[in-house]
Amino acid sequence: MTRAEFMARLKRGLVGMPTSAAADILSDYEIHFEDGKAAGRSEAEVAEALGDPNRLARELKAEAGIRRWNQEQNPSAAAGAVFAVLGLGAIDILILLPILMSVVGILFAFYMAALGLFIGGGGIMIAGPFAGFPGGALAAILGGLGLMAAATALAALTTILTIWLVNGLVWFARLHYRLLKPALDAQATDTAGDRS
């Protein structure tokens, strides 16, 4: 594989990453080719030593997604980490994805329940004193505040569970990838040996 082919495939694989991060990665791999050329190696030798550019791109995107999650810990970073890990292909998607979607659905239901409780509590707190709430105006206000506090607690606990889920998925993916990496490297070496 030539330098241009390797770089084009790597660039296509990095689509979706921030442009500055992708440019830095591409620049690093250009330096690998320059160093190889200075050492008297051919472009094909350098490309073979670097490995499959498609797999490299998936690994780099997964690491970038995980790094962003570790830095930001927000819903966007969580989604990016989950999709990057799934894109890595290190996790058996046929087994993990249905379980993950079920858990995400349950977490979403808890968020919606918290939102409903919060809105309902606000309605009771505001309209209860005027609608003849049993126990009087003070009971309506306190009841509404109680529902809003319960909703806030439910949303906070659901957020903690969501963070644990994303961290667990990232941990599992890293562990799974570490276990698969020697087998993938051996497979890539065997494939390269067969082509020779």
TrEMBL record:
<feature type="transmembrane region" description="Helical">
    <location>
        <begin position="139"/>
        <end position="166"/>
    </location>
</feature>
<protein>
    <submittedName>
        <fullName>DUF1700 domain-containing protein</fullName>
    </submittedName>
</protein>
<dbReference type="Pfam" id="PF22564">
    <property type="entry name" value="HAAS"/>
</dbReference>
<keyword id="KW-1133">Transmembrane helix</keyword>
<keyword id="KW-0812">Transmembrane</keyword>
<feature type="transmembrane region" description="Helical">
    <location>
        <begin position="77"/>
        <end position="100"/>
    </location>
</feature>
<keyword id="KW-0472">Membrane</keyword>
<feature type="transmembrane region" description="Helical">
    <location>
        <begin position="106"/>
        <end position="127"/>
    </location>
</feature>
